[in-house]
Amino acid sequence: MNWIEWTGYAASLMVMISILMTSLIKLRWYNLIGAAFFVAYGIFIEAYPVAIVNFFITLINIYYLIKMSKTEEYFDINTIPAEDNYVKKFIAFHKDDIAKYFPNYKVSEKSDECFLLLKNMQVAGIFLGKRKNSDTLDIQLDYTLPEYRDFKLGYFLFQKNKKIFTDKSYKILSTDKESKKHNNYLQKMGFTLVKDKYIKTL
Q: What is the mean pLDDT of residues 89-102?
């Protein structure tokens, strides 16, 4: 295969990856790259209808990415009892996806802290924790819905709202090693692996 064929395959791959994305921003970015490759590919093989259509697709993706970057997002944290019926139903509804990322989580465990994480007034995730001692909170569940997994909720909770923990005398957050993807998320949120636990000092 020559480099022109590789360009076509790369374009197809990017478009295929884009439709697998749950995040709208990631979908737009991958689709933009795929469409741009198709523009080049169409020009190389003189398939100008392909190039023209994908040129406009590229412009559309750029337009929406700029629009999304300028849209102000609203985040909030709603503290509710862990025994609340909505919490139970939320966890039950998403139990299969939760199990993929939190294989160690047990529904039967009691929680001392429960936060609903909101984005634009929509429930985007849930946080459950159990007090280990006077200054340490064990995180039992820190689950975000697939369409909101862009780290923004995590930064909002752990970076911008540390006060929600420190006001309750928590100085340390700890959590078990879970799935590979979640462990990567924890590292981005400032957690450090200590033996078999991820620790964050507030």
A: 93
Which residue, chain included where needed, has tokens 């006001």? 167
Query: Any idea which residue has 């966890």 for tokens?
Result: 91
Name the β-bridge partners of 76: 118
Strands 172-176 and 197-201: antiparallel
Question: With 80 as the cut, is the pLDDT of residue 4 above it?
Answer: yes
Tokens 């697939």: give the residue.
146
Q: What's the whole-model pTM score?
A: 0.73
For 125-153, give one letter per residue: b (16+ CB within 10 A) or e. bbbbbeeeeeebbbbbbbbbbeebbeeeb
* 69-89 pLDDT, tens digit each: 777 789 999 999 999 999 999
Residue 71 and residue 77: Cα distance in Å, rounded? 20
Yes or no: say if 160 and 117 are a contact pair by the CB < 8 Å rule: no
